[in-house]
């Protein structure tokens, strides 16, 4: 079944346990396996890196936020990295993150689906995008020497390393 044709609201008895994404799997295309057992095809998600890209033919990343409400993928039609919810429309993360950067930049999503950060093959954080506002934020401390290590469970802080120093940054202070 296609994502746009799936009704995800259950009966009143099931209202206590909303349907979320349990995990993603790739067969010929990407699929979402939901917590109620349904499988939803995501035909618009790129499964392999395009033939004219640097890392042609390797598996394209597909991310699911820790809360199971958001999923992110590279779109087949134009190679842009997009975010969706089960009942939502695609939203482009940043335009410079494309299928041609796969395995040059590694995207990671916060557990609540609010932020995407990319690590890069070069030193530093590549992109830090606030998905709620659609803005790409400047590097923390206004330097690109940081290496991204992870998000706090509430998505409000980043753990970054520079040389041998670990620092926790507040996302609110970066806006």
Could you give the order of the helices and strands?
EEEEEEEEEEEEEE
Percent of residues in β-strands: 35-45%
> How large is the radius of gyration?
17 Å
Strand order of the largest sheet: 4-5-6-7
Question: Which stretches are low in confidence, meaning pLDDT under 50 for 5 or more residues running?
Answer: 1-14
N-to-C CA distance = 40 Å
Shape: globular
Largest sheet: 4 strands, antiparallel
* Number of strand segments: 14
Helix run count: 0
Average pLDDT score: 81
Helix proportion: under 10%
Structural class: mainly beta
Descriptive notes:
The protein has 175 residues and is mostly beta strands. The chain is built from no helices and 14 strands. The protein has strands spanning 21-26, 30-34, 39-42, 62-64, 70-74, 81-85, 91-92, 105-109, 115-120, 125-130, 135-136, 147-151, 157-162, 165-170. It has a four-stranded antiparallel beta sheet, with no helix packed on it. The radius of gyration is 17 Å and the shape is globular. 26% of the residues are buried.
Secondary structure layout:
Layout: E1 21-26, E2 30-34, E3 39-42, E4 62-64, E5 70-74, E6 81-85, E7 91-92, E8 105-109, E9 115-120, E10 125-130, E11 135-136, E12 147-151, E13 157-162, E14 165-170
Antiparallel strand pairs: 1-2, 2-3, 4-5, 5-6, 6-7, 8-9, 9-10, 10-11, 12-13, 13-14
In short:
This protein has 175 residues and is mostly beta strands. Helix content is 0%, strand content 38%.
